[in-house]
Write a structure and sequence with these properties.
By secondary structure, the chain is an alpha/beta fold. The protein contains 5 helices and 6 strands. It has a 6-stranded mixed beta sheet with strand order 1-6-5-2-4-3, sandwiched between helices. The protein is globular.
């Protein structure tokens, strides 16, 4: 699987799918999810909520709405909005996103950094968890994963983890 790292806004990704960290209710109320809802409306959120509750470690695939992707893969990282994210939930959400992409045969997906910063997980641990799950994944799809984030420290953490292995 090809891994590409970009300092870019995941909302601008053009490809098959975007992995979107959210909560078990499917609500797009924090971080990247809230920005997407604010800019593109709530149609994608409404689709996700229809499948709620969504367990941490599971995923729901919806349309891409007005985004430049055909699908959004909603991966809960917490049960309730506002809770802190643990590193195991980063791993479980990444794995769920990859499994969902494989299930619906998405060739290229974007995974943002998540769980870092105010959520308390160090950047390098977040990057390691996401990249470990990508490297361990054995499905036929996706064939390409773009790790994109606007935070330069997260981007450097991704690069460091890829280069170290």
């Amino acid at each position: 699987m090809e891994i590409e790292i970009r300092q870019a806004d995941p909302m601008d990704y053009v490809g098959d799918g975007l992995v979107l960290p959210t909560n078990s209710y499917g609500q797009m109320v924090e971080g990247l999810a809230a920005r997407i809802k604010g800019e593109f409306g709530d149609s994608v959120e409404k689709e996700a909520i229809l499948s709620a509750p969504i367990a941490v470690g599971a995923a729901v695939v919806t349309s891409g709405g007005s985004l430049s992707v055909s699908k959004v893969i909603h991966v809960p990282v917490v049960d309730h909005p506002g809770l802190r994210i643990g590193i195991e939930n980063v791993r479980r959400a990444t794995r769920a996103g990859l499994l969902a992409a494989n299930h619906v045969q998405l060739e290229s997906i974007c995974i943002p950094g998540f769980g870092y910063g105010e959520n308390g997980i160090p950047y390098d641990e977040t990057a390691r968890a996401i990249i470990d799950e990508i490297r361990a994944f054995k499905g036929s799809c996706p064939t390409r994963v773009v790790l994109a984030d606007t935070d330069p420290t997260m981007v450097e953490a991704f690069k460091s983890q890829v280069e170290d292995r």
